[in-house]
Amino acid sequence: MLKDQMTPLERAKALAKGEPVDRFQCNPNLSNGIARVYGCKISEFNHSSRQLANAVIATHRRFHGDGAKVFTDLFTLAEAMGAKMKFPDDNTVDLLEPAISDVSQIDYLEPVNPYKDKRLPLHIEAMKYVYDEIGHEVPCSALVVGPFTSACFLIGVEKTTKLMLRNPEAVHKLCEVSLQSCINFAQAAIEQGVGISIAEPMSSCTVISPKHFRTYSAPYFKRFVDFLKSKGIGTSTHICGKTEAIWEDLADMGFGAISVDNVVDLKKCTEMVGDRMKIMGHVDPSSVMYSGTREEVRKETIKCVQQGWRSKKGYGIMSGCGLPVETPIENIDAMLDAAREIGWPVTDEKLEKLLSVDKYK
């Protein structure tokens, strides 16, 4: 296994200054797979801040990726506002029942108190543990589920899509209270010393049209980004699925980075908005990272670098979405090792030469 010459935090600071580094930043994006690395059940860290922090810390120390993220599932804000959850013994939490069933109940919804409501205090405490123990080595962050996505979970995705056509005012009310919850949670996270990244899967053009994105998601997304900027916090976002039609919108909002799904054209993304924000992605999390061989992971990582490395604001290796829980550990190693093998600086000739070699055969 190749070794890094810099810590993730040293690498991040050098890149920010335009200084040389040892390799591209690389974030495999394990999500709840951190339970497998640490050796606990997923349910354990859904009910223990110490276990959640331990899993995040163990994952950093095992792989030395370029971020330590405190996150469990997409529903923490919606749950804190009244939604009911399914808590499997050893799988990801899922939505059981939205917070409300009818638009007449919207006015009863209240923004979250991160220090009191449901699992949010657990997450806040885990952030403090993580930052205190490894914040000197790696950039630490909280993943906040964005205003529109959290709003969808308050009344249900299907009802939200119908309301966008039949009752726009109701959708805006849901997004408004959801935005305030995002701000409250992010403020508490910032107070623990961590950065913020934003997940907005329901804003994908695979789910809603670009027109509906601009009407219902973008205004609240932008206000959330503006709030973070007012606190001196830069931020990144990940939106699953097709996003090409809204890349310019996201760049206009002032994101520092965007992580893109493997279903989009990475090279085109760098050409369209790579001069305005850093591009991250987009190794296939399923057919390559989960189901592929180490050599397939290595080759796909190199191919992604071929497509992304010319991005003017920078490029980072990342899976196209959160990895399946049972993604083989050796495949995660292969992604990080590929980043180290590619090294820095990079040329097209170097990448072609690496592709011509089968390292694991």
From TrEMBL:
Location of the Uroporphyrinogen decarboxylase (URO-D) domain: 8-341
Coiled coil: none
Stored Pfam families: URO-D (PF01208)
Gene Ontology BP annotations: porphyrin-containing compound biosynthetic process
Gene3D superfamilies xrefs: 3.20.20.210
SUPFAM superfamilies: UROD/MetE-like
A GO molecular-function annotation: uroporphyrinogen decarboxylase activity
PANTHER family assigned: METHYLCOBAMIDE:COM METHYLTRANSFERASE MTBA
The name this protein goes by in its record: Uroporphyrinogen decarboxylase
Organism of provenance: Marinisporobacter balticus
